[in-house]
Amino acid sequence: MNRIFLCLLGVTTLLLAACDGQTKSGLSKADTIALATCPRFNADNAMRFIKEQCEFGPRVTGSEASRLCGDYLIERFKSFGAEVEEQPGIVTTWEGKQLSARNIIAHVNPANTDRILLCSDGLSSMIEDSQIEAIAVSSATPLAAVDALVAAALHEGGHDNVTVVVVDVTD
Question: With a threshold of 0.85, does the pTM exceed it?
Fold first, then answer.
């Protein structure tokens, strides 16, 4: 679970770092949103973001390092112009120990209709591509798409590694 969470955080950070802050030419001001300028994606930036996250130490769920790294990610997302939503919660380990956890969701232009979906074979091996596309396109938000896609994969018998990332993007 921690590996999946860390992978999702890394992918999300890299996706946000990859944007260039540019808008489509020919759009009116009403059709655009103001975003902070993102650094152009390159290997040095990617390694710097990963290094900064790793400097917090092992980010085990419920640990101080996990909290600090989460705070760092929230500030990075905000610096790129994202609206950040936090979903705090308690997770219970198989030993019955309760740990603090939180989902960090960054929204960049939620009204945009262009989406990118990244998923593991836990989704793509359980559901036909046409069904994945229909769910992703018809869902009102990326979070709703993720929830619906994971639920569909689990309903079809998926039990491990159902990883889904859905991102709304602009040019």
Answer: no
Which pLDDT score is estimated for 152?
94
The C-alpha atoms of residue 84 and residue 95 are separated, in whole angstroms, by: 32
Provide the 10 A C-beta neighbour count for residue 127.
21
Per-residue pLDDT of 66-90, as tens digits, reads: 999 999 999 998 988 888 989 898 9
Burial (CB count <10 Å: 0-12, 13-18, 19+), residue 73: buried
Contacts of 90 (CB under 8 A, 6+ apart): 98, 99, 100, 101
Average pLDDT over residues 128-135: 88
Strand 114-119, strand 98-107: pairing: unpaired
For tokens 């860390």, the residue is 6
